[in-house]
Structures are given as C-alpha cells and as structure tokens.
Amino acid sequence: MRTTDLRIIKTKQALHAALLTLLSQKPLEQISIAEICREAKVNRGTFYLHYEQKEGLFEEYFQEIMEDLYQSYEEPYRAVTTLDTHQLDPNTIRIFHHIERFKMFYRIVFSKNVPLTYYYMLFDGIYALLKRDITTHHEHQMAEQISIDYYSAYQANAIIGLIIQWYRGDFSDSVSILNQQLAAILKNVRSDG
Predict the structure, then answer these.
(1) pLDDT in tens, 55-71
(2) What is the pTM of this model?
(3) Nearest-CA neighbor of 110 among 163, 62, 63, 64?
(4) Total number of domains constituting the chain
C-alpha cells in the first residue's frame, strides 16, 4: 500500500511540475493534456486515473500552494497566544519562505503574459486567508466602522504588493530582508493608526 501511495505522490508531483513548466510558456487554455503527459513522462491513462481534465490538475496544484500559504501565514501565531505586531519577531514570519519555495509559480502569476485570472485566484486565496485570520484572531481589535471584507481586501493587496515588488527584483532580496521589511511596515502602520 505504501509503495502505491508513493507512486501516486511521485506521479502527481511530475504532473504538477510538467504543468508549471508549460504554464511558464503559455496559458492553461493553450496547454493540451498530451503536452502535460509528454512533459511529465506519463501516459494519458495515468493522467485520467487522477484527473478528468487539465483544470483539475491546476486546481489541485493551486490548492496545494494555498494550503502551504495558510500554514506559512499562521506560523507566527504558533509561538504566541496573542500576536502583537509591535513585538513581531521577523524570524517567525514564514510567508516569504513559502513564496521562495513556490517561486516558479509566482513568477508565472505575476508575469504580464498570463491571464489576470491567475492573479485573481491568488488574491481570492490570500483574501480568504486574511478574512479568516481577522475573524479568528483580530475581530475584537477592529474599529466598528471598518468592514472586514474591505479590510481583508486592503491587506491582501498589501501582501501581494510586497510580493510583486520582490518579483520585480527577480526575488534577489533574501527572505530575511523581506521578513524584516514586513515586520517594520506592520510596526509603522500600527503606530501611525
């Protein structure tokens, strides 16, 4: 049983990698299942054993990325009962480690050659994460007149803005520099407000 599971994992990893390689060349709509199979070195039967269509493969890969992003975002909360952004230790920030791990995907999302759909999928994922974070950890701290929906959208765009700036520099700054920048920004924003 364990070898079967390992084979499935390896097959799916190969299909994810193949899809990512092809997405760096053209949009999902222009990629055929045959191309994915050729790139992954698997036959079509194996593909259809796991997915009905290429969109299912993309959705699964995207969900894997979002799950890793959620885990990375939640990391600072594991060290404390209440997260105070004035005391935020940059070493507990894991979101940029996540971006670095999935750098190839983020290069595709922020490329000007791909449909805006990818950007909005990422925005929706980060928005949902932040909205969940606010309702779980910070809702009591929000001013009454601030809508959680608008605040979540604002925060999601702020995070995406940092990632885009890092992308524009071809991810040349280290993760620790990004962690320090985010911690400093959060401290500055909180002290201004």
Answers:
(1) 999 999 999 999 999 88
(2) 0.79
(3) 163
(4) 2
